[in-house]
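Colleagues,

Please find the record for the two-part complex below.
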Amino acid sequence: MIETNKAETSKAEALAISGLNCFYGEVQVLYGLDLALNKGEVLCLFGRNGAGKTTTLKAIMGLVPASAGSISLAGKELTGLPAHEVPKAGVAYVPQGRRLFAEMTVAENIEIGLMARGKGKATKEQVLDLFPLLRQRLRQRSGTLSGGEQQMLAMARALCLEPQVLLLDEPTEGLMPSMIGKIRETVSKLREMGVSTILVEQRVDAVLSVADRVCFIENGRNRETVEVEELRADPSAVRRYVGVG
Amino acid sequence: MHFGPHLLLATLEGLVTSAVLALTALGLSLVFGVMRVVNVAHGEFFMLGAVLAWAITTAISGHPALGFLAALVIAPLIVGAIALVAERLVLRRLNYNPEATIVATIGMLYIIQQLALTFYGPEARPVEPPFSYRILLPWFGYSGYKLSIIAASALLLIATWLVLTRTKIGLIMRATQYDSETAQAFGIPVGRVYGGVFALGAMLAAIAAVLIVPISQAHYLMGQDPLLLSFIVVIIGGLGSLRGTVVAAVLIGLSDGIISMFFSPTLAKIIATLLVAMVLVFRPQGLFGTAAR
């Protein structure tokens, strides 16, 4: 499914954003945002509510149009592509609040994930190996799963696209601590498999435990990007941009 | 005639109404369920189906069944193509905005109606049924063609249900219905799905019209009643719910048939309208619909 090639390509760029401007109607939300995601790394977007983190992910997916700037995936321009072409290019999105097709079964949600890009049964089996609990729930309506199981399904559905880049929007929101641990474990496992991840997260502990680098976003602008070790040694940036820590 | 046979006759008439109504309302329900567009022009697609059925059966000589079968295939295809063009030219440009599309489809209603008046004329014209076999029951004889309408409608409803629940196309349509933004994030071309669903909705109305036109007549104003009844069915059944549409169509069709025969058609309409009012007050999502998320 996902090749383990982190070591040889760790410095290559998986996704690059430059000068990105986005609007919701008349209101500008992103102001010349620049971002670089290296292959096989977990980059965390960190900032207050309304800073523009979710909008950045939606802009990458083509769900919010970019009025200026560029987004490229391993050199291939994504800007201007219709939203339904972006997942086919190799970007998968796990939205905030999971947004499963709640009336559909677990199997049908996975089927939706496989439609655009996956290799059918083989991909499905590999994804279910990552989330074995879902194997027992295939015929269950996804809206009846627990919060943690729903998050696993949302990630499984996205991984069915065999993405080069995975966008995770607050995957630990509202979950029990044991489930949060499992989600972190999965993100780390995906990094080992060479998947590059942009993670939007509000919890400092979650950021420190899984991210390689942290990009602070404030008022639609990227302010500072630091290695997670630097942040551990000096967490003042967290206080500066988010007001906690 | 005794009460029992009288009731049986009323029930059969009601089932014929239900069968046609279920197909027409299903088209309206699919369009609203998937696209969130209230298609006020839906009745005109029904009318176009009947008018085209007249044109096709008139153009094809020979056994009436030949012309009817041709109409059953060609009329819905033409109506579907017209609906697709209307969707591309009008609804897509309005970005499927719910309020704007109501006004736009009202405009489409008048354009289609007036075009039919211009080119087809104000007369009501009959279409010959494909066969005129009568089934002789101990109490009365009943049109075999009318029973075939019920059977054809049931087959089409089952086929639609199978497509929606067992095929990839159905999965795509349902995903678009539940969450169009997430559907796009999984490679589903929502714009194309909308075009297909709008055409499919219009085709279902056209098929219903071709089925009913041999026992009614083709007329340029004949779309008004099916539109009103379809809205009643869809509101009672729950928008976007196939099961609800069928149950509500049977309920409305049967009550229409039975009450019209024993009391008066006006009373049947009053009861249907009261039922809608009660559903809107006590269960706004309809009998089988899900509450808005």
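Chain B has a mean pLDDT of 93.

Comments are welcome before we finalize the supplementary table.
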